[in-house]
Amino acid sequence: MKWLSEEYGFYSGAYVMGFDIELREPKPISVNAMYSEGPHGRRFLTTEGKHYKDKLREETSRAVSILPWKIAVDGVYKQGASASLEILLVMDNLLNGAWKVGGGTTGKGDPQSPYRRIDGSNYIKLIEDAVAEGIGIDDSANLRTVVEKAQSKTNPRTIIRYRIYE
User: Fold this and answer.
1) The domain that contains 22 carries what CATH number?
2) How far apart are CA 71 and CA 116, in angstroms?
3) How far, CA to CA in Å, does 74 sit from each of 54, 65, 77, 115, 136?
């Protein structure tokens, strides 16, 4: 299977460099804990959301501090390199406790999902912003962003993989 980005040549160049970080504390927080709603329906980061973002930014800064990261930054801003951001949200519980094998329906009669309503796409902006602030490369360079969810009751965490391609 080919990624569409490969088919259209976004990653026709070679891998330049990147990093992986694994953030165990704080564990991935719920979107409801991350954002709150203010006047006129505007969303803003809560104190807990700010703490999560700050930790992500600190860890990304630490990850690139041991790399010759200026080469990657110059690659993006001077030579048009692109980036790939992969996010793995390892939650302590993904399963809907009300779901039964064989299916079932909600109170409205809709099919019931075996999984809790954890919208991975709601995490993207906060994580992209934290990574961009931590590494000095604007998130507009992220031509590929992937979010995956997994479950581990004993080891919930956030794993980020960031790659630069010429």
Assistant:
1) 3.30.1330.70
2) 42
3) 25, 15, 5, 42, 10
Residue 5 lies in a domain: no
Q: Say whether the peptide bond before residue 26 is cis (omega within 30 degrees of 0).
A: yes
In b/e form, how buried is each residue of 147-159, taking b as 16+ CB within 10 angstroms?
A: bebeeeeeebbbb
- Which range is most confident: 55-69, 93-107, 130-144? 130-144
Instruction: Quote the percentage of the chain above a pLDDT of 90.
Output: 27
The closest alpha carbon to 19, from 79, 65, 52, belongs to 65
Q: What is the pLDDT of residues 35-89, one digit of tens each?
A: 999 888 898 899 999 999 999 999 999 888 888 888 888 888 988 888 899 999 9
Q: Which two tokens stand for residue 123?
A: 């995490």
Number of domains in the chain: 1
Domain holding 150, by residue range, is: 14-165
Q: Is residue 82 part of a domain?
A: yes
User: Do 60 and 50 contact (CB within 8 A), yes or no?
Assistant: no
Here the tokens at position 63 are 């990850």
Task: Work out the number of other CB atoms within 10 angstroms of the CB of residue 129.
Answer: 15
Q: Taking the complete model, does pTM exceed 0.85, yes or no?
A: no
